[in-house]
Task: inverse folding
């Protein structure tokens, strides 16, 4: 933009040279971009030369002597005269032409020990410590550009006491910053000590005592301290400095670590910074303002959401509508802020239930007890709502539609709740965790060679930058622009809880169809191979076990079969996830295959949501009979449900393929699965075709029979080639 502006200004008429010259000096010459500054300097010199070519009268009209004095004085004070010497010499030449009896402004007298009127003779200078300190002080207090490297070298020669004096000087040029961290740390700790000394002794933490002593009005004293003028900006300034130090303290050498005698000081200051001028009232105010904030998050797009803290977690999970409906529970817990679960009769209101679901998905769960209470609440909503409708009814009544929508919301909530046990590194906390992935791709063997390890170092640096650019995670709560890892557990037998794949392995091991940085749940979240390894459902050949162990771990092969994080998921975070998934499987089977289909039927909208939920919850299955029951149920549904219902088919087809792939794709299983895949790939419904492709990826992970290959591969190849040709055209 500035370059284009200069190009426009270059063509201004000669009669405006004086005004243009003042514009160059006042607004454009001090740009921090050196290339543009040189352009401005060239244009300004050209305008001065034009003024020199004018008559004396015209030159004085365009640039009076007063303006010339102002310009030259500004150039001297700002330090620009030294940078633009040719321009300044042309101004001197112009002065000699229009006002011979005047002289240019003299350079400003600095505090440099060699400056003065007149300057001292070199042979009379006594270069002692005081002279050296004055020299360093003059360099640190320069206006404009200073010699940073040279000044830093001068500062390193000073003892700590003199350094502290210079750094606390009010005339210190702040732009040069704290180049000596050791002295900066000492000065910061001194300021912390000065602030914390204002607190009453002994200093209490956060909550007031249960029985305050009238003889010791501690909180009144604290309110007086916080009421001091200027305390807030002082504390905030120290908070910024301290936070920057604490963020990098792990990378600093041992002399720059937190001194042991200062740890209590830092803890006291942090406690002071978190408290309010009136702690009791502010705590009550903030406590009552949390629910409206959660409501605001539901309509605003924020970069991060805070985790559900135990102090307010129970309260923030309650929708404001519940209070308006008359619910008045008795709070309990350590701080008196824990509320019981909301009664089911309140959650039967759709608006209340939808708001409740948003809150539990946003805040997660913090303990096994809270998970079980939420689980029981959601099941209670389902039990109290009839899931079937009379087949004889020709039109759905409004109540039936309301019940169906409520059931759909409940199924979505239960699915999300169960899947939250898959999050790493902290199960149930969506603010700092993401869903676990078990990618189908294996590690390249070439990376284990000498050249491969060298390549991994280079590739790791490239992949870290790629991850930073494409990261779209909106639930990261961190001081850093992006996490240094994403939770992609490897299939290692060393750690039963799974290990996190580093960036050296992430890019080529993550599923090809998954966009890097997007940690939402996707089809293919858990590979078929990882299900086999974790649950010993389909025994692999001996040579395959050897290859997997070589690829995925550098440790010696264990005596038992490798395990994956799926086994630990049975009781992750103390929650019996296996029982939850088994209960949902049995419940969904009853809904999809009603006992009396001639009289009763499940609403179509609920069938679609149940199949979708079953497809996701199956990632938590740990037994072969669960996949067998899933396959049998879905096959019966596929036979009885209308083939024209493509909304259901987009979930039904990949779920069928997933269950069949885990079971092994024998002849009895492969024929109906291949037939369903071929029909769905010819569908005009795009989501159905995408579901079929995901199902195909599940199927291709297992060892297919020759007959299955001959039947399936030609049809799939024809579909892919025809679509590629259409895209190419």
Result:
């Amino acid at each position: 933009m500035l370059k284009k502006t200069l190009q426009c200004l270059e063509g201004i008429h000669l009669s405006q040279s004086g005004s243009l010259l003042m514009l160059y000096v006042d607004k454009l010459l001090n740009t921090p971009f050196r290339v543009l500054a040189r352009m401005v300097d060239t244009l300004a010199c050209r305008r001065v030369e034009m003024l020199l070519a004018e008559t004396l009268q015209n030159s004085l009209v365009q640039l009076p002597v007063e303006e010339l004095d102002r310009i030259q004085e500004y150039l001297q004070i700002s330090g620009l005269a030294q940078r633009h010497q040719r321009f300044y010499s042309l101004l001197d030449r112009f002065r000699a032409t229009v006002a011979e009896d005047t002289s240019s402004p003299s350079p400003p007298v600095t505090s440099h020990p060699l400056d003065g009127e007149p300057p001292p003779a070199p042979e009379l200078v006594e270069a002692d410590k005081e002279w050296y300190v004055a020299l360093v002080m003059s360099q640190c207090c320069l206006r404009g550009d200073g010699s940073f490297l040279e000044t830093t070298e001068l500062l390193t020669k000073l003892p700590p006491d003199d350094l502290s004096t210079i750094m606390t000087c009010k005339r210190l040029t702040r732009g040069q910053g704290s180049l000596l961290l050791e002295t900066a740390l000492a000065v910061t700790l001194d300021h912390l000590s000065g602030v914390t000394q204002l607190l009453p002794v002994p200093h209490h933490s956060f909550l007031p005592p249960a029985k305050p002593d009238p003889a010791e009005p501690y909180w009144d004293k604290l309110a007086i301290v916080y009421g001091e003028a200027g305390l807030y900006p002082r504390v905030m300034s120290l908070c910024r400095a301290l936070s920057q130090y604490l963020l990098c303290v792990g990378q600093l050498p041992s002399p720059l670590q937190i001194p042991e005698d200062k740890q209590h000081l830092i803890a006291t200051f942090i406690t002071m910074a978190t408290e309010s001028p009136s702690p009791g009232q502010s705590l009550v105010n903030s406590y009552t303002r949390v629910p409206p904030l959660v409501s605001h998050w539901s309509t605003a797009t924020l970069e991060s959401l805070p985790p559900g803290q135990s102090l307010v977690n129970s309260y923030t999970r309650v929708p404001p509508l519940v209070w308006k409906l008359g619910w008045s529970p008795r709070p309990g817990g350590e701080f008196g802020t824990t509320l019981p679960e909301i009664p089911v009769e309140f959650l039967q209101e759709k608006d209340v239930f939808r708001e409740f679901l948003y809150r539990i998905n946003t805040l997660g769960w913090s303990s096994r007890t809270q998970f079980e209470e939420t689980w029981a609440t959601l099941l209670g909503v389902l039990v109290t709502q009839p899931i079937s409708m009379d087949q004889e009814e020709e039109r759905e009544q409004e109540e039936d539609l309301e019940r169906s929508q409520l059931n759909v919301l409940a199924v979505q909530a239960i699915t999300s709740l169960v899947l939250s046990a898959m999050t790493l590194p902290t199960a149930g906390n969506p603010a700092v965790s993401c869903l676990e992935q078990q990618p189908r791709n294996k590690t390249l063997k070439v990376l284990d060679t000498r050249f491969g390890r060298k390549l991994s170092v280079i590739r790791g640096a490239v992949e870290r930058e790629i991850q930073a650019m494409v990261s779209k995670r909106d639930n990261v709560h961190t001081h850093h622009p992006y996490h240094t890892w994403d939770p992609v557990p490897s299939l290692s037998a060393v750690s039963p809880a799974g290990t996190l794949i580093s960036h050296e392995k992430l890019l080529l091991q993550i599923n090809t169809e998954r966009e890097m940085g997007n940690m939402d749940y996707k089809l293919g979240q858990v590979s078929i191979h990882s299900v086999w390894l974790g649950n010993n459902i389909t025994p692999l050949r001996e040579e395959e076990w050897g290859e997997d162990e070589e690829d995925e771990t550098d440790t010696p092969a264990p005596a038992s079969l490798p395990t994956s994080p799926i086994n630990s998921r049975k009781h992750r975070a103390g929650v019996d996830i296996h029982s939850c998934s088994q209960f949902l499987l049995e419940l969904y089977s009853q809904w999809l295959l009603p006992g009396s289909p001639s009289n009763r039927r499940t609403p179509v909208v609920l069938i679609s949501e149940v199949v979708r939920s079953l497809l996701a919850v199956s990632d938590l299955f740990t037994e072969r009979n669960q996949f067998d029951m899933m396959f049998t149920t879905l096959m019966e549904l596929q036979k009885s449900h209308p083939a024209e219902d493509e909304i259901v088919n987009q979930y039904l087809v990949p779920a069928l393929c997933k269950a069949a792939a885990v079971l092994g794709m024998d002849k009895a299983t492969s024929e109906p699965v291949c037939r369903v895949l071929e029909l769905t790939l010819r569908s005009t419904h795009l989501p159905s075709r995408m579901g079929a492709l995901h199902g195909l990826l599940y199927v291709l992970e297992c060892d297919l029979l020759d007959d299955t290959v001959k039947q399936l591969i030609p049809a799939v190849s024809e579909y892919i080639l025809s679509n590629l040709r259409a895209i190419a055209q």
Summary: Strands lie at 389-390, 423-424, 434-435, 489-490, 499-500, 600-601.
